[in-house]
Prior knowledge:
The complex is a heterodimer of chains A (111) and B (119). With 111 residues, chain A is mostly beta strands.
Amino acid sequence: HSALTQPASVSGSPGQSITISCTGSSSDIGDYNLVSWYQQHPGKVPKLIIYEVTKRPSGVSFRFSGSKSGNTASLTISGLQAEDEADYYCCSYENTRIEYVFGPGTKVTVL
Amino acid sequence: EVQLEEFGGGLVQPGGSLRLSCVASGFTFSNFWLHWVRQTPGKGLEWVADIKKAGIDEYYAGSVKGRFTISRDNARNSVWLQMNSLRAEDTAVYYCARDLSGSGSLDFWGRGTMVTVSS
């Protein structure tokens, strides 16, 4: 049972923007700016695309952006492309159990 | 080039033990926290444990606390995960990953090693 919730799936047409939410609590997302997002294509290793809520690692497309409001973090993919079709996981530090927790993942489909 | 490679996965009976290894190269190993993350085939990611740069502080997921131990040797660019009292629900691909900034931002991952707990 994940402490973070994400929509099971999100879809969009090429060129559109989509947003994936990640809802937690005041013990995790709400209390720390330690939210990261990972992209995973089938059979591949997860790839860090956003860290510390809004930061993009070197080499990650500017089309990926992160934000946070209260207990909910969000990942926005703008100018959706076929290669963006993948699973996306959020992750946050959680202070009551002193551990990191992943969301259940969101499958992004490009129509 | 940053590389992480895991070793030691396999088939083990419930209640048994297994020790996973992860060897790193291409960066100054002692400057980074390291994590283990697992993924059940076809399912989501689960954080398992992490260890700070000097190897003094370790943290564990509640599901493995008291059964798993993470350790590292900076001179050997290696991190280990000792897994005891294994259960069927520990079956997963285990990844080691580097923490970019000590904030749980895992910027490089190994390819993973499969652990199957079954009789």
